[in-house]
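Input sequence (380 aa), recorded before submission:
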Amino acid sequence: MSVGTGRAPGAADVRTRATARHGDPAGLGVDPDDLPDGLVVADEHGRVVCFNAAAERITAVPAAEALGQRLEKALPLEDLEGRRWWQLTDPYGGLAIRAGQPERNLLLPGGREVLVSARYVRTAPTGPVRRVVVALRDTEARRRTERSHAELIATVAHELRSPLTSVKGFTATLLAKWERFTDDQKKLMLETVDADANRVTRLIAELLDISRIDSGRLEVRRQPVDIGAAVGRHIQAYVAAGQSADRFLLRIEQPLPALWADPDKIDQVLSNLLENAVRHGEGTVTIDITPSVSPREGDDENSATSVTVSDEGPGIPEESMNRVFTRFWRGSKRGGTGLGLYIVKGIVEAHGGTITVGRAQAGGAEFRFTLPVGTPAYLQ
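Predicted structure, C-alpha cell format:
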C-alpha cells in the first residue's frame, strides 16, 4: 500500500518507501512526516529508505541527502565517550538474538545531544536483519523537565530552611531555658513555631498538588457548591483579620446555575486569588460571580459559572501575562514559592474549566475562572 502525501515526487515519496513496502495492515494511512519523533529506517543492506520530517529537524540533515546513504553515514552518531555508535552496536553483524537498542543519549556532529533507540526487524527470530528502525527524540523537552525538577527541589529546600530553622531554634531554646521565660514569651515563641509548622504543611500540600497535577491524578470530588457563600466566607476571614470591609465588593448576578464541584479545591482557588489581590493589589478588591457559557462544547448556554477577581493596583506587566500560570512565576513584589497560580490553573482545568488573566478596568490585575456546572449524570 502506498501512503500518499499530496507533495510533488521526490524525497517525500522516498521517505514513505518503508511503509509502502511493508503495507499498512491497520489501515491507518500514517505518513511518517506526521510522527512527532524522528524516524529513520534502513533496509537489509543498511541504506536509508525512510527519513521523516522530524528526523530532518532534529539532525539538521536534509532528507534528500540522507536517503540512499549508508545508515552510519546518514546518522554519524557517537556515544558520550566519543565512540562511533554503529561500529559499537553492529546491528547487521552482531548477535542474532538482539532485538534492538534501548534509548540512550548520543551525539550528532557538532556535539548536539539526541535520544536514540533502535529496533532490529527480522523475518525469523535469529535470521538476518531486514530493517533497522531508529527513533530520534530531541533532548530539549527532557532538559526542560529536568531543569523544572531541579528548580522545584531548590525552591522547596529554600522555603523549608527558614521555618524549620525557626522551629528548631525556638524549641531548643524553650527546652533548655524553659524556666527563664515568662508565660507571654513562651506563648509568643510557641505561636511562631505553630505558624512556621503551618507554613511547612502548606508547602508539602502544594508539592502533593503539583505531583497530582503533573501526573493527571488530581481527583475532583463533586458536591453542590454555593460559590457566593464560599467567597463571602473568605471576605469575612479577611475582615476578622483586620482588613476593612469596605475594601471588598462582592457582586452576584442571579440566577446562577447549580454548581457541582470539589468545595475544598474551589476554596483553594478562591483563597489564592483573593490573597494575591489583597497582598499585591491596591484599592477595592471586586469579586463578580455571573452565569456564563460553558467552556465545554455541547453544553447548554449559561451552564457554567464565572468568577472574576480584580483589584485597582499596578496590575501585571503585559510581557508577563503568558507566564503567570507557570511554575515559579513571581511578580516584582511577590514572595512565596511561585507555585500557587500553577496549582490554581491545574484545579480549574481538572474541573473542566478555564482561567485567564488580564487587566481590570481600574488598571489592576483581573483573574477570571469559569467552571461548567458539572451536574452528575444521574441528576440530568
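Checked by second reader. Residues 140-177 form the longest helix (38 residues).
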